[in-house]
Amino acid sequence: MSGSDDDRTGRSEATAGRDDSRTDRPAVDLQDDRERSVSSPEPDRGGSEPPAAPGTRRNRVWAALLLSLAVVAVGTAGTILVVHDAPTAAAGAAVLGVGLGAAGLVGRTIAPSLLSALETGWEEHRPYVWFSAALFAVGIALGVALYAVGVDLTELLLEMLTEDLGEGELPGGGVDPVGEVTFDPTASFFIANNTPPFLFAIGGALTLGIATLLIMVFNGVLIGNVAVVLGAETSPAVIVALIGPHGLFELPSLFIAAGVGFRFVHRVGQRIVGSRDALFTKAYLARTTALVVFGWLLLVLAAFVEAYVTLLLADVLVPL
């Protein structure tokens, strides 16, 4: 009996020792854990591999998205070549499609880190992207409200185009016999016209996000007001047909850019209050760069669709 009691006593002391060793372990910084989990999780040095199912599943989603965008780009290239007889523009759209498709295939096979960077970048920036979309929606509501009180911003939009670019710089620009300015849109025109707002939305972080906020709200006001003005003169279906095809790619691109700007502002705030050890890390720069490049490629795809496909779809969906 006494030996059994001693054994129990020894086991109790050993258990207490193990408990004490657990309590003596240093506390883990949850912020650092979240940073590591979002950036680039390190492999298990003990030799066992972490569960791969969730990451693999997310990578499949991103691969499918890239391949879908590639199909759209290649289809756009075919449309440009057949309908518009513009081989240079068709080649540009085809190159974009091949690049997107290659990224999806390579990410699923030999370089899964590419899709992982996109996934972790999206996970980190997703709340800020949705916040940017909400600001844009607020701008649309304000634009509609301005129309309700008699404000028409269509002339402002035209003045912005002519003042910033000049009639002589408009692609295919000129004056027809009636005296009206003609405009033959090209993808390069829309890329050149839409890339600065994309970059300014990111760089607005240098103004603590104020410039980014103004860009999102102003664009929403302008689009909301002009859309309702033109919709009143024609029909809402026409406006949806004219904005929807390229807006499906252009608006998420702008939201991603603004989300990157807002996320950086948040990181600056975390660094100031001391909840973040470093403002920049290699992992943060890698995943953010991947997301920004993806967003800009969406902008390029939107430019090809807007220049060569939108009007065709609008004529089919809503004959004018």
Describe the structure concisely for a colleague.
The protein has 320 residues and is mainly alpha-helical. It has a domain at 118-317.
Detailed description of the structure:
This protein is mainly α and 320 residues long. It has a domain at 118-317. It is built from eleven helices and two strands. Strands 1-2 form a two-stranded antiparallel sheet. Helix 3 (53-84) runs antiparallel to helix 4, helix 3 crosses helix 5 (112-148) and helix 9 packs antiparallel against helix 10. The longest helix is centred in the C-terminal third of the chain and has 38 residues, at 236-273. The radius of gyration is 27 Å and the shape is flat. The chain crosses the membrane at residues 61-83, 89-107, 128-150, 198-218, 225-245, 251-269, 290-314.
Provide the descriptors you would attach to this structure in a database record:
about 0% strand, transmembrane helix, disordered N terminus, mainly alpha, flat, single chain, membrane
